[in-house]
Amino acid sequence: MNKITTLFNIRYPIIQGGMIWCSGWELAAAVSNAGGLGLIGAGSMYPETLKEHIKKCKAATGKPFGVNVPLLYPQTDEIIKIIIDEKVPVVFTSAGNPAKYTAFLKDHGITVVHVIANKKFALKAIDAGVDALVAEGFEAGGHNGFEETTTMVLIPSVREVCDIPLIAAGGIATGAAMYAAMALGADGVQTGSRFVASEEASAHINFKKKVVEAGDGDTYLTLKKLVPVRLLKNEFFRQIHELEMSGASREKLAEVLGRARAKKGMFEGDTKEGELEIGQVAGLIHEILPAEKIIENLVREFNETSERMSGMKI
Amino acid sequence: MNKITTLFNIRYPIIQGGMIWCSGWELAAAVSNAGGLGLIGAGSMYPETLKEHIKKCKAATGKPFGVNVPLLYPQTDEIIKIIIDEKVPVVFTSAGNPAKYTAFLKDHGITVVHVIANKKFALKAIDAGVDALVAEGFEAGGHNGFEETTTMVLIPSVREVCDIPLIAAGGIATGAAMYAAMALGADGVQTGSRFVASEEASAHINFKKKVVEAGDGDTYLTLKKLVPVRLLKNEFFRQIHELEMSGASREKLAEVLGRARAKKGMFEGDTKEGELEIGQVAGLIHEILPAEKIIENLVREFNETSERMSGMKI
Fold this sequence. Notes:
Two copies of one chain form a homodimer. The first copy, chain A, is of the alpha/beta class. The first copy, chain A, folds into two domains: about 5-200 and about 285-310, TIM Barrel (Alpha-Beta Barrel), CATH 3.20.20; about 215-280, no CATH class. The first copy, chain A, contains 14 helices and eleven strands. Chain A has helices at about 5-10, 25-35, 45-60, 75-85, 100-105, 120-130, 150-160, 175-185, 195, 205-215, 235-245, 250-255, 260-265, 290-310, and strands at about 15, 40, 65-70, 90-95, 110-115, 130-135, 140-145, 165-170, 190, 220, 230. Chain A has an eight-stranded parallel β-sheet. The first copy, chain A, has a three-stranded antiparallel β-sheet with strand order 7-11-10, covered by helices on one side. In chain A, helix 2 (about 25-35) packs parallel to helix 3 and helix 8 packs across helix 14. The mean pLDDT of chain A is about 95.
């Protein structure tokens, strides 16, 4: 038992990151059934789709699960209403102002966690009354902070100002990294990338295979003039990154990015022209596994690392 | 005793990174006397200056110390000759091909370590016969790799292909981070930034004060079209970074950078117009301390973290 397992009433302090196009009800339910906390990623769902995923998730698991809500979409009010109506026990908010919904969600008995990438927003989220924080480092996949602070530096920095439960994200796909994150001051971890390469992820099999094939240095943070996003290096990445480095305007970048790039890559499997959001840690992910096995490995590796480090003094 | 302390015949597996303008004989000798491995940074020294520093270092400590040699300067042959003549026991090479000097240095009984930032160069250095590797993450100060892999991901990635002693660098200024790095697979750590804010560093006091004042998000990796370098955000940084983001050519960037920017900032103390190379971890460095106290803190914090994590199972 630690602060995270107590807060969410789960067995292991392992959160499956809520991701667009990858984490529907099947993944969330599988993770929760295996003792972690599964999150449905609402970012890529219409309200009606989300409602369906929540209903299916409730049918598939009796364990706690949550929904990740990026606060940047016009339909957020509607989404929050569905979450409350469906009595989802946990909400992770990201990409927006934590002050907007935290009190409202908590009034409905929901545990609220906010994702941050710097100290300033950590303080803002704590002020808003969140129950826990996810501090996400530069190495994480998908949308990312402007400061580019890595997990190694971000976790102790946030810990300096944070007394509430702290979840580390970014660069974590093994039990050893989980143990390292907790040595740095985290109470638990969130990993998205590791679960993209799971059997239950709704990601297209082409994308899952690309994640497994990815090696050292195969992702990069780009689109810094819009919102920084970490992508697998493919044809689309090279095109947009070259544009950015040549000094292209926000407008030009947005035009080339177009609409539905992420869906095209991650959900429809166009690994050349689509946007493939994944963390640096893809280089350490070598096979597609069932979510249950992923949790089992994380736990085993964590305990092995603990054994190896046990009593180490210098 | 571990692989690193055995290799260098030192007490603690803590290396003080060799840095331009910051790590002369006084710092290196102080670190070695305190039980770590001090490194003189040859990168900012003329051969004659380096010779003087080596002689003074030998007079100031009977303990092993080393010299860091970036392999990109025209006078490298001359520098290597001085190191051999002066019987320096350890050489760290960086920023160049490890095949060039490793065998030659080892033939003279010198322990050779090479600094890398990706798996490919790790393999190249191992092939060249180095005795150990420093794997340096994206969060590190000064010159940095193109792949931008963070310490959290780089250490386990390199560990996958590396059986020789492995030293983690980047994001490490506390004993907790040192412990985390070792949980990730490192045998020891190198920290430059923490020692910039030491009494013995040859850095200008203005620069040391800036490091201590720096907070979360106050450094950034820039000049990616030349050689990526992590700088403290000051007037010079803002000028050059804006230029880069507007699509300026390598030539234009080199022209604005000019010569001796790093000396101006770090050694002469012009914190506005000079180049201030420091790691993200500056945000976790809160006071200027004697090198001996820094080592003492790292050791104490490491052992405290070990105690805190002891027997943790999930």
